[in-house]
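User: quick one, fold this
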Amino acid sequence: MSDKVSHDSETPAKGQQVITVAAFIHHDFDGVIKVFQPRRAMTKKFLPGIFELPGGHVDFGEDIIEGLKREVMEENEMHINVGDPFAVFTYTNEIKGSHSIEVVYFAKFTDPIENIRLYPEDHSEFRWLAESEIADAEAISDEELRNVKRGFELLKGQAHNFG
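Assistant:
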């Protein structure tokens, strides 16, 4: 049993800055690199049904990498190794009334991928998405799409440090 706690993506935070983290968790499937994407439950008020990079809110005073590890453990009961950050973006959560700053990190599961667990109040399913499948990927936000593309570009050494 995990130390699962309630998500706060809907807890009011009117006018507050919130720090969030996400993990580009990649795995090599017989030479094809794929990224892990759980799908947000349709019962979520914020971005229901969207495939996302796993992560969540960093608690006040919490180390950002430890917060990412905690979120993945709470939502998937999996341990991760966290690599370098590669993207930072901001968004407004109209449900919370907050402004979020999100940092995206490279990561890998250290537990066997067969052990991934989902909690139905958080996520309904997950997929492993290859770079070649991005164009046909459904239910992904524009920002998530940019981050997934950038993650794959960086893994292949094709990204630039501008634009």
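User: anything notable?
Assistant: The CA atoms of residues 51 and 138 lie 8 Å apart.
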